[in-house]
Amino acid sequence: MSDATEPVADWVYPRFASVDVDVASPLVLVPMGDRDPADEYWGEPGDPLPALWQEVISAGVRPRFEMEKILPGVPPDEWDDNPIVDAVELHEAGDDRAATRLLRDLVASDVRCVDAWAHLGFIAFDTRVPGPAGELYEQGVAVAELSLPEQFRGVLPRGLIDNRPFLRCLHGLALCRWRQRRWDDAEALLTARVWLDPTGSLDALACSTRSERGTAGRRHDDHVASPARVRPRAVAEGRRKPVVPLRPVVRARGRHRLRRRRRCPRRRAGQPAAVLGARPPRSGFRTYLAIDWAAAGMAPEHYWQDLCELLASEVYGLTYQHDTLAFQRVPAGQADLVESILLELADEWRAAYGDYQADEAVGLVAWLHVAGRRYSRYVDAARRLGSDQWQPVVALAESAHRSGRQELAVEVFRAADRPGRQRDHLRHRCAELTGFHLDDRAPRLRVVR
Predict the structure, then answer these.
(1) Quick one: which of 96, 160, 174 has its CA closest to 128?
(2) Which of 21, 42, 276, 281 could be disulfide-bonded to 316 (CB atoms 3.0-4.6 Å)?
(3) Average pLDDT of 360-380?
(4) How far apart are alpha carbons 196 and 429 in whole angstroms?
């Protein structure tokens, strides 16, 4: 990192929403400590820094927050039922009407569901024109801005996942403004996006630079792309994996339009998408897993490296409700190789401040061992997880419990029992599953009749 520039005047978040939103109460803004630029990764020593980054660094330490996330009808601890994921899959399968209806139902239940506004904007941007998409993104921005105090100067990092819906809306609105040739508005939105999440907004930084030249918004995934789609080494080296190019704008009936994607035929109610030839991401993923890579002459370390990188950074829920799917065909003797790749990925992501992807990689180690019933690895896997990721911990314990290894199930819960967001929930599940109460100083003995 180059030397810091002279201190700049305090940045203040400029409000962008011009619509009024009626909410019962604003989203809660939870303080999460301070963010010190000295603790962030800004590139290799001596590398030139963008001017906007230099301003952010010069601003010094700023408070960090996480915005409350509202998902109507879904309990806070229910991770298996996510209507947003369902809507994304419907959109990817070509059924935009059903996806939109599902998302509209969410905002009808609670207008504060910013993630629903973000995905409504995404679908509109992908299938229509920027005007309607901008209106939807702006609704999400308006809801989020109600939570920001006047003269807000804080940070909303993408690594705190509940901040992502607001950041998506802000970025999507910026691209809509660019497509409408409202250059100054686009530049202001992208600049605010960088100030809110400096090291997690590489796309916004790149678009901000291109916006000055009138060349931003040329890629389909700019408004949703994120560090989750960038390999750790690429972040460190300033490189990107290619993203899907935007379908070209064509002149049609006197107006500019986006060429629509080839859609699957409209299906009747209850008819599965597979009947009509639609291939959502999960279908293609299963095909990928079925490939006999060994017969094709691919080295095991190369195959598992590629698969593990995909699993740690994918955003489509490819293993949703089938968490062990990717590891059900690990050949004998290669589990150690896969585990070492995942742990190395976790270290790389954490070094690049990709905590979410790092946690995903560590969680995948647990699913690897559950798939192969490697009981001797369960306790170590749970110890790495701690109590912040409850699902893989519970899966390890349930696997041990089903095999009659009651003491192992208790040891799994005990290994993960340390301060964290889901500690109370894990203690409750331990008591339900094994009858053992981790919060007791002395263990309770059950009477076996």
Answers:
(1) 96
(2) 281
(3) 94
(4) 37
Write out pLDDT tens, residues 21-55: 888 899 999 999 998 888 887 777 877 888 888 88
The pLDDT value given to residue 414: 94
- 65 DSSP β-pair partners: 31
Pairwise CA distance, residues 170 & 16, whole Å: 9
CA 168 to CA 299: how far, in whole Å? 38
pLDDT (tens digit per residue) in 384-401: 999 888 899 999 999 999
Burial grade of 432 (CB within 10 A; 0-12, 13-18, 19 or more): exposed
Separation of alpha carbons 374 and 397, rounded Å: 12
- Enumerate the β-bridge partners of residue 257: 250
Contacts of 428 (CB under 8 A, 6+ apart): none
CA angle 202, 32, 25 (to 5 degrees): 95
Which among 261, 340, 274 has a CA at the least distance from the CA of 304?
Answer: 340
Counting other chains too, the contacts that 126-129 makes at CB distance below 8 Å and 24 or more residues apart are 126/91, 126/220, 126/258, 126/261, 127/96, 127/258, 127/260, 127/261, 128/258, 129/256, 129/257, 129/258
Which residue, among 126, 230, 107, has the nearest Cα to 172 in the 3D structure? 126
Rounded CA separation 308/362 (Å): 11
Mean pLDDT computed over every residue of the chain = 79
The C-alpha atoms of residue 78 and residue 81 are separated, in whole angstroms, by: 6
Q: Half-sphere exposure of residue 263, counting CA atoms within 13 Å on the CB side? A: 13
Q: b or e along 52-61 (b: 16 or more beta carbons within 10 Å of the residue's beta carbon)?
A: bbbbbbebee
Instruction: Identify whether the C-beta of residue 150 lies closer than 8 Å to the C-beta of residue 98.
Output: no
d(CA 44, CA 125): 36
- Kindly state the percentage of the chain with pLDDT values over 90: 40
Three-state SS for 22?
coil
Q: Hey, what's the torsion of the CAs at 340, 341, 343, 348, to 10 degrees? A: 140
Q: CA-to-CA distance for 393 and 415, rounded, in angstroms?
A: 9
